[in-house]
Specification:
alpha/beta, 7-stranded mixed β-sheet, 25 helices, elongated
């Protein structure tokens, strides 16, 4: 693109600019990082992969904005900066999408079989999979699209298989029966993150269990439950060993109401004797805590409910009933037979399937698990010794607490879309887990059948920082960009993803996958509620972009944002950010219109600078220092605030007004050239500071700057510019202080004129009394006061002389200066 100065449009059109310059950045290869660059310092980020089924939401918008700010900032600082994009195959969510599409044709996945169904999913992915990545482009994300990855592409699939087999060979992956989250509708195990807990108004049912051979209430134990249908799977009642109330029951049997099955009373410290009745029904097959109690006491597992939520033969006469239908009938029977003691209202959180909103059942099931304790210990050490630093630091304790109490991870899912578990079974009993598909049983030569389950989506995501760079191969990308520099994500997936990446990275590469974890908060609605489909309070970022621009959305999301804290979405703040864009555009237009004869070879001497020049250069230098410092410590919201105040207040509202007389005065060439030089210098370098936050408008203005030698304007794109480094010598605190005093005087006069409704076109007499050390300085810069405060004549007196004070005048005192506005004539 030509670097000649171009005419800037009178109205800022973000839609046209955003489409134009994103295409330009991609075509110019400005997002690409060089894996063979061994000189530049490297900086790398892997994107938290959005679901391939997903659409951009406000959480994405904030997350991508934060990452984009860091990447663009590091590129300007001269780093070889890589941002790896990609998407997650989202096992359950994607399978549901394709099943719904087939259902519209009255076809189920079972009708067409597994292989044909997987083909249909890949077709769906090819058709819709780029939707979310195109939306990321509309936000301005500077991702290296040449390196885009997918969790089920060939490379990532190879990494998944290598990881599974390696862990299995070390005994860290096993198949066993444990309690897992189960969705009766999706008919699969779920990870904890796939379960959403909703506060629900429910009931607590108190049920009496009689001692064997007695019908005396004194010979009974009352237990309370929120899920009475699960009592049909009870195999014990537990009390605390030190609870005197139940000493006589220990070792005896109770009769399970309705079913008449004998169950023992056991002693276990798991029971809280002060809570409720101090007695707990134990259902090992349907409760995770009860499962552990059952293991300790070798209790049988009675499965009263199947995987679809239908009661089994163990439920007796309730067999075949849907679980809530059973609950209703069971409670009726318990009440009629005198077992139901009372029913209390009880608010509690109930887990729902994230995908279909069905209430999840804890269920004992044979699944594949990863032993987490051996993997967690190195991760704890890495966080404790600072190898991985958490921002904000207060989340470090949360990381450690979760890792110290970690349980084995259920990694198998009963669906078809995903990484199929590389385990094969033979009728001879042989189990083969292999990196390559085996043709036959190595023991007997018999036919093999592969495990039908697939891996939890989070299993492949745990490998993301190194699988995306080519692992398990020793690629140049892996050598250059791993470990990555920082992982940016919301705090709500610390446990399910971030910690697992740390564990897997340490295990398979010997290095933590990133040196920093930067946790931001959630984007909530204006009332502080979490945005969700069910509440109907979600806001589509694309709608905001269409109405106000991507830059406005980005700047709104980041201003006022502090690490780890939630932020609220306000349309008013988006509008304010849009107004900020317009302010910058108009200020730039004014600058360019008044620098059409800019002399690129002119360099002012220190004597050529006016007080206003020295003021804006000082404020600019302090803005560079503050913005740089705050970005480096991930205080992006504070950096954005400093930029806003500098651009809006110091540059636009003050300096442009102060400099106008010199720009319009063509007789004083040196003064005019100095003003132009200062304007271009400050504007061009300020655009660099703002570029990571508002990339589109800064690129558009940068392209229209006059050719100059002040801000490395030898590159077509601002993305190839250099971050301001030399600024300390510009700081002149004395000039800044004096100019601030003059500005305070101007504001005071304006306020007094406003109080008396002075006509804008009529100038006011002003009397100023200042200390002798300020008096001469104010006299030398009196023109600023006259022009910007509509003050004339201006009389400046020595405060120490105690002259008679003007009568009938408004008075204000600022910075030790007394200002009088005589009312005569107003």
């Amino acid at each position: 693109m030509s670097k000649e100065q171009k005419e800037i449009a009178s109205v800022y059109n973000p839609e046209e600019i955003e489409k134009k310059y994103y295409k330009y950045w991609e075509e110019q290869g400005l997002f690409h990082a060089d894996e063979n660059d061994t000189v530049s310092e490297k900086f790398s980020i892997v994107i938290p992969p959005p679901n391939v089924t997903g659409q951009l939401h406000m959480g994405h918008a904030l997350d991508e904005t934060v990452q984009d700010i860091l990447i663009r900032y590091k590129k300007l600082r001269g780093y070889n900066a890589l941002w790896v994009p990609g998407t997650d195959h989202a096992g359950i969510a994607t399978q549901i999408k394709v099943e719904e599409a087939l259902a519209e044709k009255n076809i189920s996945r079972h009708d067409i079989g597994r292989e044909a169904f997987i083909t249909e999913v890949w077709k769906w992915k090819e058709q819709y999979g780029s939707r979310i990545t195109n939306q990321l482009r509309s936000l301005g994300s500077a991702c290296d699209w040449d390196r885009e990855r997918f969790t089920m592409d060939e490379g990532c699939s190879k990494a998944v298989r290598e990881t599974f087999v390696s862990l299995y060979e070390e005994g860290l992956i096993y198949k066993g029966t444990r309690i897992i989250n189960w969705c009766p509708r999706c008919n699969t195990a779920l990870s904890d993150i796939e379960v959403e807990h909703e506060d629900t108004q429910g009931h607590l049912y108190h049920i009496r269990y009689f001692l064997e051979g007695s019908s005396d209430p004194e010979d009974s134990i009352v237990v309370a439950t929120t899920r009475p249908e699960t009592m049909l799977g009870d195999t014990a009642v537990a009390v605390h060993p030190e609870d005197k109330r139940y000493e006589r029951f220990a070792g005896k049997n109770l009769i399970l109401p309705i079913s008449e099955r004998k169950i023992p009373v056991i002693l276990d410290e798991y029971v809280e004797k002060e809570f409720g009745t101090g007695a707990v029904k134990i259902t090992p097959a349907h409760d995770p805590n009860d499962f552990e109690v059952g293991l300790r006491h070798q209790l049988p597992h009675v499965v009263a409910m199947d995987s679809t939520g239908i009661m089994t033969s163990e439920a007796g006469k309730y067999e075949g009933m849907e679980r809530y239908e059973c609950r209703k009938q069971l409670l009726k029977d318990l009440d009629e037979q005198g077992y139901l003691v009372k029913v209390e209202d009880h608010d509690h959180a109930i887990g729902h399937c994230q995908r279909c909103s069905t209430i999840v059942e804890p269920m004992a099931s044979a699944q594949w698990f990863v032993k987490m304790d051996p993997l967690a210990k190195p991760a704890i050490e890495a966080i404790n010794n600072g190898t991985v630093k958490v921002v904000p630091e207060r989340f470090t304790k949360i990381f450690i607490n979760w890792l110290e109490g970690i349980r084995d991870w259920c990694i198998s899912r009963q669906i078809w879309w995903g990484h199929r578990i590389p385990a094969w079974y033979c009728s001879c009993g042989e189990v083969i887990v292999s990196r390559e598909d085996p043709a036959e049983c190595p023991k007997c030569g018999g036919k093999l059948e592969q495990d039908p389950d697939v891996l939890d989506t989070w299993f492949s995501s745990a490998l993301w920082p190194f699988s995306t760079l080519g692992w398990p191969e020793e690629t140049q990308d892996l050598k250059t960009f791993y470990p990555t520099s920082v992982l940016v994500t919301a705090y709500d997936i610390i446990f399910f993803w971030v910690t697992r990446m740390i564990m897997m990275g340490l295990k398979f590469t010997g290095q933590a996958p990133f040196s920093h974890v930067f946790l931001h908060g959630l984007v909530r609605d204006s009332e502080g509620k979490k945005m969700s489909k069910s509440l109907g309070n979600g806001i589509d970022p694309l709608d905001v972009i269409d109405k106000y621009s991507a830059d406005a959305l980005r700047f709104m999301l980041i201003t006022g944002n502090t690490p780890g804290n939630d932020t609220r979405f306000y349309w008013e703040r988006v509008e304010a950010s849009r107004n900020f864009s317009n302010k910058l555009w108009n200020a730039s237009r004014f600058t360019l219109l008044n620098t059409d004869d800019f002399d690129p070879d002119f360099v002012p001497t220190s004597e050529d600078y006016t007080l206003a020049d020295k003021f804006i250069l000082t404020r600019y230098a302090k803005a560079v220092e503050g913005v740089t410092r705050n970005i480096d410590k991930y205080e992006l919201g504070e950096a954005a605030r400093m930029l806003y105040e500098f651009i809006w207040d110091d540059f636009c509202d003050w300096y442009l007004e102060l400099v106008k007389p010199r720009l319009y005065n063509k007789e004083d060439a040196i003064s005019r050239k100095t003003a132009q030089y200062t304007l271009i210098y400050v504007l061009s370098n300020t655009l660099k500071l703002l570029h990571p936050f508002m990339p589109f408008i800064t690129e558009a203005i940068w392209q229209m700057l006059p050719e100059n030698k002040l801000s490395d304007y030898t590159h077509a794109s601002i993305m190839k510019a250099k971050w301001p480094e030399e600024y300390q010598s510009l700081i002149d605190s004395d000039s800044e202080s004096l100019m601030t005093t003059i500005m305070d005087i101007i504001k005071a006069i304006r306020n007094m004129r406003s109080e008396v409704n002075a006509p804008p076109g009529r100038k006011s007499e002003v009397i100023i009394e200042a200390a002798s050390n300020l008096k001469n300085a104010i006299i030398e810069n009196m023109e600023y006061i006259s022009k910007l405060a509509a003050a004339e004549p201006i009389t400046i007196k020595d405060l120490a002389k105690q002259d008679e004070k003007p009568e009938n005048a408004l008075t204000k005192v600022v910075a030790g200066v007394e200002i009088y506005l005589p009312l005569k004539g107003l």
